[in-house]
Amino acid sequence: MQNDTANMLPSQIFFGLAILAFMALLVIEKLKPYRRFTNKIDKQSIVTNTTTFLFNNVILTTLRATSLFFVAQQFSSYGLLSGMGNHPVKWIFAFLLYDLAIYVWHVASHKYEFLWRFHKVHHSDKSFNASTGFRFHVFDLFLEILYKCLFVMLIGVDAYLVLAIETIQLFFIFFHHSNIAFDNEKKLSEVIITPSLHRTHHSTVRAEHDSNYGIVLAFWDKLFGTRKELVPEKIGLDIIVAENFLQLFSLAFITERNIRKLLHMIPKGRN
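Given the sequence above, the corresponding structure tokens read:
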């Protein structure tokens, strides 16, 4: 029992630091934003994202933690890394594989229409701020939980390590969605995903937002040729708009293809 408590403590500390970082980023954004959005867009973004977070949190947060934790506990003695001792080398390998796995999931969420119909909810934000990291469809999160459970079964690592990695990724999600810019960001972006890189990922242009899929490390986008460095003209999705939580939830059941078909059915009239 004492060992469990000791192992859990680093995860709790990481989580606390991630939440503190989120609040600090919100303050910095207000004081010195990289890009200024209208008050209406900012307000809609923060209110909708916060409401979505509360809804998703009630349904999935406990499930997400306990399911990953439970699966990792049950399969920690199996899988790719199970034969390694619990030391820093194993932690590094686990982190690298986990980050790669989420990169792959992110790419799939853009490439496959069934996954995109849920993931596009995240991209529907017309603003870009730390709270955008909360803007996910509940089904998107649920499917990701199943994927992560399968992954931890395959690698076989300690449950507390899984929670620690999850929390580190949470911090980076807040960080790279923040509406900030800072000195030497270009250099830092060679190693990790920074706001300037992820801002490109939220471009309205599909050819631009199908890029920079990394969560923590910038290496994967370089390796697989999905890195793009540019300043997007607009943020969000042109056709899709959601001004509140209910509209946001409904977006998953309205595809761009159906909207375009509907527009083509409407008589255009004479020029």
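Residues 183 and 221 are 22 Å apart (CA to CA). Try to locate this feature in the token string yourself.
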